[in-house]
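R.M. (postdoc): so does anyone remember the format we settled on? I'll just put the structure tokens first.
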């Protein structure tokens, strides 16, 4: 699918500022960015739940910009799941086919097939209130898939789940996408979620696209200081007269005499298999991700003076300037 100079305005407020984007068929694409960056407005324009103020939405060679949602070949899974509380699970899943006047036996058969796909067949007769959050999410997924969409749109689908279930459902979403072979477009503000799930990350800021790339490209080669700051685990340093990105796990602590910079330890945060050490050198602030074994061998405490060093090749210049 393709977005061609797509924009969205609410009065004088520009939510999406003329973006261009091509998403290959069968891709898992995450629209990533902070609150208010335009990612949800973009998703809703693709779905047809918001009318684009300008530009075109192209799906499978068709201009669907003014078509209603049901005629686009897309399906949307809402953040709230939006299940009908008075209906059984199977009737919730079959609802879109009921609206299309599909005979009852056929729509129930297809609903049960979608429930099997998300491993929810044993719960077909239950009401949504009798399900856990993760089970409700699976039902919402099955309902979105009942119309055999070309593109599945997901609006913050994991945000309501606890951390353990969120990790499990990430695996399930990727499995489903691989099995179905259709495009998933997934809105999230979670860097970890986008990096774990997607083939293609679209990082947005203030209604514009900051960078498009694979998770590795966006993480290893952020195009701008904004990308580096948002993705996290990056420092921004001045080298050769230009700003550069330096991953926190590439910063090594050493004796002050051997460091590129002499810095004070601000904090030491235990994170399990690594320790996050924050450093301040007056004009410079750095974060270093240090393996736990290194900290045990060479302990550091807040207030200590240390050297910070890194290899030249680990500092990556930005392809775009500061915001």
């Amino acid at each position: 699918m393709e977005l061609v100079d797509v924009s969205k305005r609410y009065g004088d407020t520009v939510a999406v500022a003329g973006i261009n984007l091509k998403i290959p068929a069968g891709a898992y694409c995450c629209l990533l960015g902070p609150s208010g960056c335009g990612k949800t407005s973009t998703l809703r324009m693709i779905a047809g739940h918001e009318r684009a103020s300008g530009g075109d939405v192209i799906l499978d060679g068709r201009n669907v910009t003014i078509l209603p949602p049901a005629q686009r070949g897309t399906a949307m899974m809402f953040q709230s799941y939006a299940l009908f509380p008075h209906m059984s699970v199977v009737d919730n899943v079959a609802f879109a086919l009921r609206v299309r006047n599909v005979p009852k036996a056929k729509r129930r058969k297809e609903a049960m097939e979608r429930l099997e796909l998300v491993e929810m067949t044993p719960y077909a007769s239950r009401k949504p209130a009798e399900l856990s959050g993760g089970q409700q999410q699976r039902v919402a997924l099955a309902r979105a898939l009942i119309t055999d969409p070309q593109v599945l749109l997901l609006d913050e689908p994991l945000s309501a789940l606890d951390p353990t279930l969120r990790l499990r459902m990430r695996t399930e979403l990727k499995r489903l996408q691989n099995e179905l072979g259709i495009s998933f477009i997934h809105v999230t503000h979670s860097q970890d979620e986008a990096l774990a799930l997607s083939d293609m990350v679209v990082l947005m800021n203030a209604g514009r696209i900051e960078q498009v790339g694979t998770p590795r490209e966006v993480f290893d080669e952020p195009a701008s200081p904004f990308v580096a700051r948002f993705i996290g685990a990056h420092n921004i340093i001045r080298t050769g007269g230009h700003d550069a990105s330096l991953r926190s796990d590439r910063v090594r602590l050493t004796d002050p005499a051997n460091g590129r910079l002499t810095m004070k330890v601000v904090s030491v945060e235990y994170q399990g298999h690594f320790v996050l050490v924050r450093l301040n050198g007056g004009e410079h602030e750095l974060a270093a991700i240090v393996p736990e074994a290194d900290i045990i061998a060479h302990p550091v405490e807040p207030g200590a003076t240390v050297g910070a060093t890194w290899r030249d090749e680990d500092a990556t210049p930005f392809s775009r300037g500061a915001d």
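R.M.: ...and that's the designed sequence above, right after the tokens. Also worth knowing: The two ends are 29 Å apart (CA to CA). Residues 302 and 318 are 31 Å apart (CA to CA).
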